[in-house]
Amino acid sequence: MAAFTLRVNGQNHRVDVESDTPLLFVLSDDLALRGPKFGCGLGQCGSCTVMLKGEAVRSCITPVNTVGNSEITTLEGLGTVEKPHPIQQAFIDAQAVQCGFCVNGVIMTAKSYLDKNARASDADIRQALSGVLCRCGAHTRMMHAIRQYAQGARR
Amino acid sequence: MRHDAKVSRRTFMKGSAALVVGFGATGLVARFGLSPSTAAQGINGAPSNQLDSWIAIAADGKVTAYTGKCELGHGLHTAQAQLIAEELSVPFNRVTLLQCDTGVTPDQGTTSGAQSHPTNFNQANLALAGATAREVLAQRAAAHLNLPVQQLLTRDGVVMSRTDASKRVTYGELIAGAKFGTALNTNAARKPQNEWTILGTSIRRPEIPAMVTGQFEYVQNVRVPGMLHGQVVRPPFVGATLERVDESSVRGMPGFVKVVTKKNFVGVVAEKPWQAIQAAAKLSVTWSRGAGLPKHNTFHDTLRTQKPTRDTFTVNSKDVDEKIAGAAKVVKATYLYPYQMHGSFASSCAVADVQGERATIWSASQAVYPLRDSAALVLGLRPENVHVIFRMASGCYGCNGADPVSYDAALLSQSVGKPVRVQLSRKDEMAWENYGYAFVIDQRVGLDAAGNITAWDHESWSAVMGGRPGGGNPGNVVSGMLAGFEPAAFAARSPAPDPTNFGNMSNAVPSYVTGCVGPRCGGTGTVASQRVLTHNIRSPFFTGPLRSPERLQNTFAHESFMDEIAASLKIDPVDYRLRHLADSRLAHVIQEAARLAKWEKRSSPRAAVARTGIVAGRGISCVLYEGNNGYCAAVAEVDVNQTTGAIVVKNLYIASDCGPISNPDGLNNQLEGGALQGMSRALLEEVTWDDEKVTSVDWRTYRPLYLDAVVPVIRTQLINAEGRAMGAGETAVTVVPAAIANAVFDATGARLRQIPFTPERVKAALSTR
What we know:
The complex is a heterodimer of chains A (about 160) and B (about 775). Chain A is α+β, with helices and mostly antiparallel strands and about 160 residues long.
């Protein structure tokens, strides 16, 4: 066991875990966050995505001892039910969800990409989401929501 | 909306009247000690007929409704809340809907088979409860206000005089948290569809804001005090049995608590999830080898030849051979379908707390009451002492890992005496789930000189093992079998007996025959000479319902074949279908999809097909799902790259008629999602295996449609018909594969008869032109 101080959504959290523990388990179990999720544990589906210093990373294959004190942002860190972030609002407006389990990976990956590529084309956005899976087939609505957000963010 | 595990039944009870939970057939198991297998375990359970089991109204006028049909990501929770708000004339946000909890809600069996809409939105169950409650409230208000009930109307939770709004009484005043104390009135008047203001509108799903902000509690997020974490160790080979477990291999690992074994079930419990995963990986287990698996690349031959079989006639007019022998022309084709998997996005998870004689299980099972009974068998407890609480997981699309992981968590918890959470690894999810059925389907028709079908002969082979556990067969899924229960026995039967009544639950009967069994005809077509013979064999893998089970496979074969017949006659495939249909609603969805697609009347393939480069085509397909549960037709427009064999679906035009529409946007979402899932299954998905184990064990080895895929533009036409509410969650997925195959034929003249339509198979088909 080793002690780590993680900076998550603007707050410091001290945790005591095995140093090779994937970041996902620390976030979802020790910190009881519900945004990042276990989907495959192999970095193949995107459901565990968080932003590390603004970059989308797969927390299920990121050992906690590699994170240091870098700022970690999870889906909870973007907005709340009462005050959603514009990208979250775009998903609500488009009802771009079926089961909703994949939406963490979709939003975190898309936002991280659009933060750095504001003028991305649809093809660019799709490419950025190439490692993200949705099994319910909500692809069309999600792309619509992302496009709406991107257009709003550019204005 | 934030459903939390800590919201207990006690909390539910405080806000509403006392509950009457039904004792249906499954309740009788507990009460009278009947063997669970002898109790009725129908798909829709045996819910109470007491109004108090369905609806409670608090003194403040808030309405709580109880349903046994759960939200699975398809919008059912919202639609059911709309239904209650509509029938009771209260605002949508005044309704709280509690779903699928054996301590609280009616026993409505399983949320599956596109049965939720027909079950709860017609003159029975939840809809009838709403109608009965409004009727009772109006009657009580009549007495209270001393007015005839005909002079009263209900609005916003108030009963008032139609002529004098000052004469009024609220629901809260009338019922004040007390019980209704009455049975559902089977004649209670539903609110007429043309008066709906809440039902039939696109109310947004209230849980979505919590989902997109990371606040929603999935079953994967359930945390209870003192909870430990488990990980299972499944056999490395199909059919392997446990020989030895060496607990010393993991003793002393961080957080290690216990190794648990029961027959061939092996699991590890630790304090934290990563510790459990590490211990399970390190645990030294010796297994026997299994008996081996049939070859993957010749499995469709195995299906056709393996004995024994269970044979069934769905229809048999006994004149098919004679009619085909006398036909002017005979057309034949064979269609092949692989095993496919639910492949739920999140690997399955459950939390169980087994303390002595009692157990609580938080599960994403589609079937809380059946799970209560089957988990009781696994645990050796009385069913009434097992409490199953539904929490949503990722989309399941049928019998995925939700039930087996519930047994996993329960077995581990029982062994350690503390609550245990288990989330399966991706491999454990994929290698052992109950796959959707592989099929071989032979089709044959006779045609007269005018090109009309005179006889239709359908014969299929598919493999089955296990399935939904129901209340009495925990061995129907992997962990129940490992713990010592057998899958339901394979009941061989050959030859098939004559059919006794018509049903088309599996859509084995094509839409174009009359479906006559004895004097009654339940089909949608005109062809009187018909034979549908199906053979089941025992599957080497677990199988179970996967969205549109058998119906997709059969519809792929029927609708591809109908296209082949039309092409052989050089007739437009829409016209040819309409010529053989007797059901005007099925004809109507075909016409609407064709209209939406600006369908050009001509035969397939299109004239002067280029033999190289990218070519475009269109195709159509239709279904009356389950023979009586939702009409749908789709037109696909595709591009086919004849060099690479890649198919790009450019447009899908979908027409749907599921009776009265409860939530148009929710319906559209289901049609869109179903269509893309159908496209994923048609183009990409196939379970693979080697000589002893499944090799589709992650998203690299079983790759569905990712978000980088170029997906079609989907346009829908929703037909808001009157009459009976039907299902709509499984129709689009059913029609899309054949529509794509027919469009590829139209574009290229090459016929695809084996799913998935991989580039290699497309190129092989192109090379045979």
